[in-house]
Amino acid sequence: MSIIKIILTILFSLLISDTFAQTLPLELNNFQTVTSHKQLSSIVKELDSKSEIINVEEIGKSVEGREIFAVKFSKDGFNDKSKLKVLFFAQQHGNEQSGKEGALILAKELIKNENKFLFDRIDFALIPQVNPDGSELNKRRNSNGLDLNRNHLLIEEPEVQAVHNFFAKYNFDVTLDVHEYYPYSEEWKEFGYYKRADEQLGILTNPNISEKIIKYSKEKVLPFISEWLHSRNFSFNEYVVGGPPNIERLRHSTVDINDGRQSFGMLNTLSFILEGKNGKDYYVENIKHRSEAQSQAMLALLFFCYKNYDEINKLIEHERKEILSDNSPVVVQMDHFNDGSKFNLPVTSVSDEKDTVIQVDNYNPLVKKLLEIPQPDAYLVPKASSLSVGFMNNHKIFYHDQTPELGNVEIYNITKIDSIELEGEKFGNPELSIVEKKITDIDAEKYYIVPLNQPKRKILVLAFEPQSMLGLRNYEKFKKLLQAGFDYPIFRYIKD
């Protein structure tokens, strides 16, 4: 190729990037109307055709049949196993529009030549919109009326299945679930202040997840994102829920594993939730600033991953190997407690809109273990229980029906069901008696054997144990699992 042709090719490439950078629908609509699914579909396909580092994959469809896209950024087609695999996904909640818009802004930034170095070390996938049906109506839930970010344990909705199947395909090392929070409730209005952070980043909180990953997130990732955003005039703090401060307790987000952060964190993924500040109208109020803040927070995490590629790779590889041999007890009940530390919460006054910081005393950052359960070697799940078998299929859990000859079965008898309040919610808290039998003393042909030496072992324990505050029995369709005076139908198997 001649020098002139090379120069023309480079100039044409730059022209494409610059042209695309000026044509996002949000900008064309003067920030009065958000990007529709039809427009998003056109954008990602245009990116695919114009950038050599982008490949767009349709990973699923919504309830109403709208495509869910993953935009993959890579210099080798996601084939280099040494690269860090990073996944961001946005707009599980349809009325949180800035995640989608911020993702599109991020995409146009990443195709610029000055940012392509990131993909020397990273294979990056961006799902800009998980809930297209909800987005079209600016409604939180999907077309089945379900909250997608409460479906990551059951994995029943097609949108959530698409995300989990895509995750499993590449076994991503780092994930980010992009959301918005709404600070303008009547309770906070009466308090006289609103939370004002443009962005909040939440780290993993469930104590069954690697302590090393949680510590790394707290000590390394949070300070980096904070400095990045503050230097670009966006306010930031670690994600907190609850309050108003010193009236109700303030804590970090839930320990539940049914969301898009913790569900992947349970596999020892470096996983986060991003919460940008929503508009007062749940739509376009301040959408330009909101979307730019989301984009910058996402870009910050990508840069962190690039700069710390080696240590992240080693951390995740080591901690994932540990899962298969980790037969330590699983924490099935836990809650948030004060440890004496204070939290400086950035707020805005309702009366004069002045910014200030409130020192929070009733701050509860410590997650304490309240009840631990030893892991069995396997569970026995009734073949006739279509719901439990469906749960395992949705998770792609390995199970079989080859009954072991030796070993004991522990059967829970539910003697009484009290209640317990954890994370501000009430749960049925059963009293149990345990009956032990030889496996040869039960009709084993009626059960599937679910061994625990697989990556989702702790998810299985949290799902199946009747005393688990995060278990299947807390969902309406699984209520019959827990009935006073009856045996719990899922048995524990212990090898001789």
Short characterization:
The chain is built from 13 helices and 21 strands.
Defining traits:
Aminopeptidase, 13 helices, alpha+beta, 21 strands, 2 domains, 496 residues
What is the highest CATH level, the class of the largest domain?
Answer: Alpha Beta
Cα(first) to Cα(last) distance is 71 Å
Number of helices: 13
Whole-number count of domains: 2
Sequence of strands across the biggest β-sheet: 1-2-4-3-5-11-7-8
What's the name of the CATH homologous superfamily of the largest domain?
Answer: Zn peptidases
Task: Note poorly predicted spans.
Answer: 5-19
Q: What is the tally of beta strands?
A: 21
Shape: globular
Oligomeric form: single chain
Largest sheet: 8 strands, mixed
Portion in helices: 25-40%
Could you name the CATH topology of the largest domain? Aminopeptidase
Assess the beta-strand content as a share of residues. 25-35%
Task: Walk me through what this model shows.
Helix 4 crosses helix 10 and helix 8 (211-230) packs across helix 10. An eight-stranded mixed beta sheet has the order 1-2-4-3-5-11-7-8, with helices on both faces. It has a five-stranded antiparallel beta sheet with strand order 19-18-21-17-20, with helices on one face. The chain folds into two domains: 3-331, Aminopeptidase, CATH 3.40.630; 375-494, no CATH class. The chain has 496 residues and is an alpha+beta fold. It is globular and about 70 Å long. It has helices at 3-21, 25-28, 37-50, 97-110, 132-137, 158-170, 186-191, 211-230, 262-265, 287-307, 309-325, 386-395, 457-464; strands at residues 54-61, 67-73, 84-90, 122-127, 174-181, 193-195, 199-202, 236-238, 241-242, 250-251, 270-277, 330-337, 343-349, 355-360, 363-364, 366-373, 378-382, 408-422, 425-438, 447-451, 491-494. It is 31% helix and 27% strand. The protein is built from 13 helices and 21 strands.
